[in-house]
Amino acid sequence: MEWAVERVGAVERWTIEGEPRRNSLTVALLAEGAEHLRRAAADRSLRALVLTGAGTRAFCAGADLKERARMGDAEVAGFHRAVRAFLDGLEALPQPVVAALNGAALGGGLELALACDLRVAAEGVELGLPEVGLGIIPGAGGTQRLPRLLGVGRAKELILTARRVGAAEALAIGLVSAVVPATRLGEEALALAERLARLAPVSLRQAKRAIDQGLHLPLAEALDLENRLYQACLPTRDRQEALRAFAEKRPPAFTGE
Ligand code: COA
User: Fold this and answer.
1) Which ligand 1 atom sits closest to the C-alpha of 64?
2) Which of 9, 50, 53, 108 could form a disulfide with 59 if both were Cys (CB 3.0 to 4.6 A apart)?
3) CA–CA distance, 184 with 194 (Å, rounded to integer)
4) What positions carry a catalytic annotation?
């Protein structure tokens, strides 16, 4: 098994089980991951996910460079398509995904974290896109998702210098939204996912879509998109439940309908 999948209530934690190779991305990992994506996308009872790596050294060290060394050009191209499909599928999941950065996130490893919705890091981790020092460029979304997250100036500085940043700097520039001691990372990331899991599932899905899809549109079209996604929340039972819960001074119990 390339992934360990644990269910905790309405949350799943997906752990890359590749500590000896620093959780780097292999053909088998992506194939198994694609199955998990299909299952998760169809599971209405699953409300949020945590994605992390085994051990403390790496969240994910990017592509498995040993496997890569044995590949011909066509296989590399096929692998690259599989990475793209996996990251696109992860980003498109209806549920929010929290990346718990337990160790270094480099190259494809940082690109994996960028395809998640939120990132929480353990103190002491290093993040970076070292590709231009390796004769390639970030090719799994890094040149596109990093500037959308941090702005063009910061993204160019990080990508063109291939510099690694520590957790404190990652927090300061908005690359991660929280930094916690390594011993508390697991519980903090799970607590964040559980918090998301208590919110209205349709609202989460529509808000995620509004942000992700709206970013690529001119403002007027993006506002139209937001309006359509907002309207789709109005007939839900969960909206009525939130109004009732407010009147009854109790927390709402959402069902996703
Ligand atoms: N692919 C395959 N194996 C990898 C790997 C990768 N991307 N990154 C690390 N490993 C392997 C090492 O080859 C080593 O294997 P060995 O024990 O057979 O020699 C093992 O993982 C441990 O590596 P090491 O560098 O000693 O671990 P570390 O804990 O000191 O450092 C990293 C971890 C992730 C910081 C470091 O391995 C690293 O910088 N890796 C390269 C990451 C990278 O540049 N990725 C870009 C891809 S575009």
Assistant:
1) 1
2) 53
3) 15
4) 111, 131
